[in-house]
Amino acid sequence: MNARIVQATLLDEHHELHGKKVDLRIENGTLTEIGTTLSAKSGEETLEFENLMVSAGWFDSSVSMGEPGYEERETLKNGLEVAAKSGFTAVAVNPNTKPVADDSSVISYLKNKSAGHAVDLYPIGALTQNGDGIDLAELYDMQQAGAVAFGDYQHAVKNPNLLKLALQYTQGFDGLVLSFPQEDDLVIKGMANEGETAIKLGLKGIPALAEHLQIARDLYLLEYAGGKLHIPTISTAQSVALIKAAKEKGLDVSCSVAISNLFFTDDALNDFDTRFKVLPPLRTNEDRKALIAGLEDGTIDMVTSDHNPLDIELKKLEFDHARFGTIAQEATLGALLQLVSPEVAVKTLTNGRERFTGNKAQIKTGEPVNLTLFTTEGSQIFTKEHIRSKSKNAAFLGSELKGKVYGIIAKNQFIAS
After folding, report:
1. Taking the model in full, what pTM does it have?
2. For residue 347, which of 7, 88, 159, 189 sits 20 to 30 Å off, Cα-Cα?
3. Could you read off the pLDDT of 287-332 as tens digits, one per residue?
């Protein structure tokens, strides 16, 4: 691919031209020049968009694909297209497949099936066999096959000794352990955040305490055992405080927040709309504000779509029986720009790459190009026409979103949104 990107505002806090309008030249898939004005070369394509911004390619740290086993929800091929058109050049894929991604054969399948696409797919291997929380899975073998982290999707490690062993064992190959922040014994049949909304609707609550206890325990284990811990999709103000204190102590911990928990509160449940039944549950506005503040001060490392395609038959049920989960990749940029500055948005959409893969997200000449092209200008109401996923369980339908993704450039390909 030979192209010249014209008059783009560069967003890369590590680059000397951060915040400046620049031209970028790509030759045979490599970024060769960045300058305030680059003259056109014969045979190169010109990419020019209104109010264009360009950043290092975004990384989504929690995506469910369906395949293998649940292809009716989403296939790898279409799922990667959704990611690309949503601005992501890499995704970490959860192990909630059938069979569960708990051995090297499933990891190899995911890597081989996704090879060649512009979007990099990084499998998350199950931490325990079949994701049942009893015995550790084949972590090293999965790492050798391409897994970048290990966790049981939306399931905490109930046995503290098992998490301790996982943290110790993975140090031998610099592995990253995930532990979902929920103490399940406090959440029996819980459907929504424990609070006024759940009481009014007659729904069993999921107390914030369940998240706090799990995070506090896991941080104590991390301090004792060492290793690297990632806490996915926190949802409360106290969780932000716990992780901030752990980082100040020097613990190697990171965390993410789902865009739905940043954007909505449990007030969205007033009509028993199952599109808003997510895990962790939507919390209070005070929690939401604390999560945004945690993004801005760097306590929360990354924003994830926590994209979870589900058959409509699993959502169009009474609230108690509907599945947890929403699709959100297509809305992630637009929702995030309603909440934080473009600089914070880009930082939290790119941080995951280094944490999960060890590779820094940066714009650098002489390197293969990996960019997201977008604008922060304009707004639109998110409608069914914006959904590219096979499944349509979108909490963001009807929401006003800001900005627009123009496309990505990666692996010598330009994929327009």
Report:
1. 0.97
2. 7
3. 999 999 999 999 999 999 999 999 989 999 999 999 999 999 999 9
Same domain as 241, residue 119:
yes
Instruction: Judge if 17 and 97 occupy the same domain.
Output: no
Contact 332, 86 (CB under 8 A): yes
The pair of structure tokens assigned to 212 is 């706090």
Q: Are strands 370-381 and 400-410 parallel, antiparallel or unpaired?
A: antiparallel
Question: Looking at residue 12, what is its pLDDT?
Answer: 96
Rounded distance between C-alpha atoms, residue 152 and residue 135, angstroms:
12
Question: CA–CA distance from 250 to each of 90, 94, 247, 255, 373 (Å)?
Answer: 28, 28, 5, 14, 35
Strands 370-381 and 149-150: unpaired
In the set 102, 103, 306, 320, the catalytic residue is: 306
184 is catalytic: no
101-142, pLDDT tens digit by residue? 999 999 999 999 999 999 999 999 999 999 999 999 999 999
Let me know if residue 362 belongs to a domain. no
Strands, sheet with 120-125, edge to edge from the N-terminal-most edge strand: 58-63, 88-93, 120-125, 149-150, 176-178, 228-231, 253-258, 302-304
pLDDT grade for 207, boundaries at 50, 70 and 90: very high
Question: Looking at residues 277-285, what average pLDDT do you find?
Answer: 98
The C-alpha angle 389, 393, 399, rounded to 5 degrees, equals 95
